[in-house]
Specification:
five-stranded mixed β-sheet, mainly beta, Ubiquitin-like (UB roll)
Length: 98
């Protein structure tokens, strides 16, 4: 995928109630940025189909570069994201599923 000007942005992301923020690059999925920062999020397929990485977006915004990111309209409306295919477009806070 060709880089766009926004792909060079770096945002601050953090897990709610879990340590300091980490750098979230606009050019890569949130899961990849978390793993590079030493933060382990459950994952398996890394393409949005297994849903093992599902988290809730407490604040901030993400975009998807695939047509169907594996979430229902209701889940999206409730703030759920799939970090394996979600790209940050702002600073953000996520929560792990309970």
């Amino acid at each position: 995928m060709p880089a766009t000007p926004d792909d060079h942005a770096v945002f601050q992301a953090r897990l709610e109630s879990e340590g300091p923020p980490f750098a979230a690059l606009a050019s890569q999925p949130l899961l990849q940025s978390a793993l590079q920062a030493g933060i382990v999020l459950e994952s398996s397929c890394r393409n949005g189909t297994c849903r093992s990485c599902i988290c809730r977006l407490a604040s901030g915004r993400v975009v998807y570069r695939i047509e169907w990111p594996g979430l229902s309209a209701e889940e999206k409306a409730d703030g759920y994201i799939l970090p394996c295919v979600a790209y940050p477009v702002s600073d953000l806070v996520i929560t792990r599923p309970v």
